[in-house]
Design brief:
412 residues, Porin, 14-stranded antiparallel beta barrel, 6% helix, elongated
């Protein structure tokens, strides 16, 4: 448990990448946008909807529900988080200003495919990016001694299987192989500090899908944490050890989702979801030198002290015609950060989702989904202290995020 605590902190640092999270998808550093069809419902009912091959990520048991023998889905999301600092009482000099907008546009691709071996067994594979994004402030800005550029990239490959126990119950499980690359930097008084680290890790996920009635589905899904010991280089000025090899432990959080999907009528569906994420293990991040005369020292050390979070979402579908389906969704996503330890590298806060989408049936076998979601994010206050000088960055970030999604799904 102690290694878990230390571990995830590392990823967090880079995640101003906006969560693929602090501003674009989920609390902390997770990318909540893992399917184009789900965006329009604010991902309500994710573990129970089983609408297309993206169920491999949200609940692999849902593969037994898909039409046809083989299903695939290809999606892309354009994320635009925004982080704008407003100074109140900083002692750090103004420099070139307040950093501009630390966010920017980012494209996230995903692909899923499933195949029914027989009436009981289904298998699937997926490629997606569950954590990541990037934040970069203007060079020379007031807070550059605390945060300048923060970046996380993850690449996840999954293999999954599902078994239909009977007409009302299916179970599923998956194996995940994931690569993480992280880079973050700052400009301190005596020079430039930048760790560049990477590693690979493995994890698992399990799910169950229950059909109490033909109109109702109930899903539950657990995803494990993945442990990393990322290694690479740490660039730094000579007085604090220069450039050397370095490492940092971090772990992605585990999560549990409970979802319900219900068809009210031939035209209306409603759905809901509650997802718990285990962020409380994140305490601090230490990047430790592993070579050179300063081996064993940690020139980069950041405190997080995150809390576990809950995400609540509700959505609806309206079948306008045989070709068109309209989607609606709302969500409330708690932040794992707190007002005492929140860092300018990750100025996250509670967010509220408003989402709209539509599905067009191109052919008997193919559908096209497109959706838009806006995240209304609470102002994020920070009070950070710069290393060496002890000067402070005190103020608040005005945050928001926009998500555009498109997905093509096919069954044959």
């Amino acid at each position: 448990m102690k290694s878990f605590n230390k571990n995830l902190a590392a990823v967090a640092v880079i995640a101003v990448i906006g969560g693929f999270s602090p501003g674009a998808g989920a609390g902390g550093l997770g990318i909540g946008t893992q399917s184009g069809s789900g965006t329009g419902n604010a991902f309500a009912g994710g573990a129970a909807s089983a609408e297309d091959a993206s169920t491999i990520w949200y609940n692999p048991a849902g593969m037994t529900m898909l039409p046809g023998r083989t299903n695939y889905a290809i999606s892309a999301h354009a994320l635009k988080p925004s982080f704008k600092f407003e100074n109140t009482s900083s002692t750090l000099p103004a420099g070139t200003g307040e950093g501009g907008d630390g966010g920017g546009w980012h494209l996230i691709p995903q692909g899923f495919i499933s195949h029914k071996l027989n009436d009981k067994w289904s298998i699937g594979a997926a490629f997606n990016t569950p954590f990541g994004l990037e934040t970069e402030y203007d060079r020379g800005w007031r807070g550059q001694a605390i945060a300048l550029e923060s970046a996380l990239k993850t690449y996840n490959f999954s293999l999954a299987a599902a078994y239909r126990v009977n007409d009302t119950l299916s179970v599923g499980a998956g194996f995940n192989y994931q690569k993480a690359e992280l880079k973050f930097n700052s400009q301190i008084l005596i020079g430039f500090v930048e760790p560049k680290l990477s590693d690979t890790g493995t994890g698992f996920n399990v799910g169950v899908l229950f059909h109490p009635t033909p109109q109702t589905r109930v899903g539950a899904h657990y995803r494990s944490s993945i442990n990393y010991t990322a290694t690479g280089t740490l660039i730094g000025p000579a007085p604090i050890g220069g450039t050397s090899q370095a490492s940092a432990g971090f772990t992605t959080p585990d999560s549990f989702s409970f979802s319900v999907f219900h068809s009210l009528s031939p035209r209306w569906d409603i759905m809901g979801d509650i997802t718990w994420t285990g962020w409380s293990h994140i305490k601090r991040l230490d990047v430790v030198r592993t070579s050179g005369p300063a081996a064993g020292t940690a020139p980069v050390s950041i405190t997080f002290n995150w809390d576990d979070t809950l995400r609540y979402s509700a959505g609806a579908n309206y079948k306008y015609s045989d070709a068109w389906k309209l989607r609606f969704g709302v969500a409330f996503d708690e932040t794992p950060t707190n007002d005492v330890d929140r860092t300018a590298r990750l100025p996250d806060q509670d967010r509220r989702w408003l989402a709209l989408g539509a599905q067009y049936k191109i052919s008997k076998s193919g559908t096209l989904d497109f959706a838009y979601a806006h995240e209304f994010i609470k102002d994020a206050s920070v009070r950070n202290t710069a290393p060496i000088t002890g000067q402070t960055l005190v103020g608040r970030f005005k945050d928001q995020a926009d998500i555009l999604s498109i997905q093509y799904s096919h069954s044959f």
